Amino acid sequence: MSSRRFMVALRLAVSPTLAAAALALLAVPAQAETPIAAYAATPGNVQAGGHPDVEIYFEVENRVLQHSQSACNCEDVKDATVHFPAGFIGNPHATPQCTVAQFSANECPIDSQVGIVNIFATNGVSFNSALYNLIPPPDVAGLLGFKIYFLGTPQFTILSARTGSDYGLDATAVSIYHGSFPLQTYQEDIWGVPADPIHDRLRLNPAQNPQGKGETAYNDTLCNASGAESSITDPNTIVRPCIQPIPPAASHSPPTPFLQDPTNCDSGRSSTFEVLSYDGGVTHAADVWPQMTGCSQLAFNPSLYAQPTTAETDSASGIEVNLNVPQELSPTIPSPTELRGAEVTLPEGFSINPNAADGKTACSDAAANFGTTQAANCPEFSKVGSLTIDSSALPGPLPGFVYLGEPLPGNRYRIFLVADGFATHIKLAGTVTPDPKTGQLKISFDELPQSPLTAFNLHIFGSERGLLATPTRCGTYPVTSTFTPWDSSLGPETSTQYFTLTSGPYGAPCPGEHRPFEPHFQAGSANHTPGGHAPFSLELIRPDGDQNLTGLTVNTPPGFSATLAGIPYCSDAALAHAATGYSGLAELENPSCPVASQIGTAVTGSGAGTHPLYVPGKVYLAGPYKGAPLSLAVVTPAVSGPYDLGNVVVRVALHIDPTDAHITAVSDPLPYILEGIPLRLRSVRINLDRPNFAINPTNCDPFTVNASLTGDQGAVASLSEHFQVANCASLSFAPKLALSFTGGTKRAQNPAIHALLTAKPGEADIASTAVTLPPTELVDNAHLRDPCTRVQFAQGSTPGERCPSGSRIGFARAVTPLLEKPLEGPVYLRSAPENKSGLPDVVAALNGQIDIALAGRLDTVHGGLRTTFETVPDAPVTKFTLTLDGGPKGLLENSQNLCKSSKRVVEKIGGQNGMRADQNPVLQTPCGLRHKRHLSRTRVVR
Hints:
Elements: E1 36-43, E2 54-60, E3 77-83, E4 89-90, H1 100-104, E5 113-121, E6 126-134, E7 142-148, E8 153-161, E9 169-174, E10 183-190, E11 259-260, E12 270-277, E13 282-288, E14 303-308, E15 316-317, E16 319-324, E17 339-345, E18 351-352, H2 365-368, E19 383-391, E20 398-405, E21 414-421, E22 424-434, E23 441-445, E24 453-460, E25 468-469, E26 475-485, E27 493-501, E28 520-525, E29 536-541, E30 549-555, E31 561-562, H3 572-579, H4 584-589, E32 598-606, E33 613-622, E34 630-640, E35 643-656, E36 663-667, E37 673-674, E38 677-678, E39 681-688, E40 694-695, E41 703-711, E42 716-723, E43 736-743, E44 751-758, E45 766-772, E46 777-779, H5 790-794, E47 808-815, E48 823-830, E49 841-846, E50 852-861, E51 864-869, E52 879-884, E53 892-894, E54 903-904, E55 906-911, E56 916-918, E57 922-923, E58 939-941
Antiparallel strand pairs: 1-2, 2-10, 3-9, 3-12, 4-11, 5-6, 5-10, 6-7, 7-8, 8-9, 12-13, 14-16, 15-25, 16-24, 17-23, 17-26, 18-25, 19-20, 19-24, 20-21, 21-22, 22-23, 26-27, 28-29, 29-39, 30-36, 30-41, 31-40, 32-33, 32-39, 33-34, 34-35, 35-36, 37-38, 41-42, 43-44, 44-52, 45-51, 45-55, 46-53, ...
């Protein structure tokens, strides 16, 4: 027998399309060793995108049933599958379909015939039959059928797509006739354009076939050598059919293409044939598919239109995408090449919205059933959009949805397109790539299956949790698309279309060149108890449409302080670990900073729209930073839905004013973009809520918490919030100050001075002190020659560090429950302010965890030298000692012998709550004279 070929051409069209065509395979009982003797599959022509007739042919080894064998040979073929090469397309909807009921009654319309089948048996019996395009059941993509008429046996082929790989056609003949009629060869012809008149002579004509035997141009009745009808057991049966020509029958359908060759001219294609025997054995065969030619004749003219779901700036948005790929369905013109890849570049400023994934999950590859023919099973909470897919090979659009894909290393932002219908399950993975510096988005789908896609309509949900956010200014914006064809001889096509934003958020007028900057600020303590521990919080809010927040400086009122004793710092190394290479989920499970260093919590809100993404973080106490003695570190794990973007670490330098100890907190630049997502920071809330940490002032005067905020276009907003505690008069105030001299007591000698100030915890803090010495004490002008200038005093890392040694006149120490160690340091003579003349100041440079410069002004009153500390920080100090040197560096000179009589000191001590604890104690000296009684003459003034 000559080598004849049989082919079927139907394929489930790719992404997004289904192409079904016709394969009817009737395989034969197979011998175990070599069941398939020959297999071939070839199109009638090799014009790329053409519509050829095709043939498929296979032959099995001859098997003769022995008398001792039963009718069942379990090596016979049960199922036979042809795997067609990707790119070979069929359109089952181009030809009318026959119902199964019509098929059973031999009443299929003539227009539903798509080819013929010729079968030759091992005993010389042969027959032919019409191949019909049948209406499949709901769970089957396509169905073809023919009949073995003399046995009354229908044979069916199920069509399915390789949705787990290249979306090529798999055509499987199922439950193949299994009896005593072993077949040897099988040939099938499928028509590229079934309605073409060239096929009329092979078309079944029911009017000429009243017996309904399924006759075509070749009658399937078996004949003997003399031409008479014969039975299958007649030894005179010959291999040829009876020749009984039937008049041609014309199709009533238009000549629409039923098959299509691949639309690229790449080499290396093949079709494969797979046989499953009744005993479970599997054998394979393959045939090289010819290389296509004429790719230069193919067209490629896709276009894409995209626009946001809102015309408002700086707003949550979805996006509408309409892709059109024109497909020519002419029986004489090659079809255009299919779309292989698409990349869409959105304009800068149209970015991922940070709140898009809030409450979302991701669809894993396993749930999407990639690599299988099963439908995707993505979680409902991973759904972010809807879509429809149209194809010339489909009877209607395929509906589907868009899901967030599970992030992969190096491919974090993935989207899955899933569409189902007509027993077809489309699953495509795309990549969204944001520019790490600007957030500009590129959306790409690579290596799309070869399919006659005609329209693709995608809708990403908008509303207040839209996946995207619009640019911040009105105007016209370009969307650029680049399309790559499957025909490699054609270059990529690029198109640009535009959309326009016409208003600000919520219908407000379009912002000008500089957007507004009107943030809101709130700050305060949780209660108003003076001197008590109370959580302190502040909150910043930026409305949609405003400039983005880039910086923050906060000034606390005098007297706002905190207990730092016992709190370790979070180290720079720990913070660097959190900021680089440590995942947000890991930070949540195992924080980088010690738990003991946490002093509060933080919540940041990000994203456009009325429902920002709120992400919790922690506030830690950290050490010196950018010239400040202390800092805060706000560590926020950037975890939202399925996305882990690491951690955002923002340091806040805490500058302590050396005069009144108020705090100026200066943040690092606030982050603008993270892993390609512009944060569109909407709010920042800091809560210093560690128990027994933040402390209220003991001064009930009205104060303010001041904030200076900067925007990304240079705007500065200065805001303030009223701050005031209450009931300060309820605090007691009874500090004690003792003053004594040592050293020389005689006239013209220079005594040393010792002061001891004590106070009880829980009292109002000291606001000021003034100590007036007896008139017997004068300033020794000879020792005032080398005071420290105010400029010198302010230089260096700590106050007074750059002062000349000659200006140092003593030492001071302050003990406070707020700090682990006392503050202590030298006492200097510092020149008076430029606008004042007279004696220099006496300044105690108290250094330690923080630095305080306690300045005392020297003057005379009623003949006595007075030292006035006009500004004392509103902080609890339980013990303060000050020693001024005597002798050669002594500030004082006795004008008479101190031992001749006792002298008193005038002490005026004011409390932060307005109370006074004035005293008039006796000046203690090293004289031998001891008074039996010393009157303190202390009075407390309320």
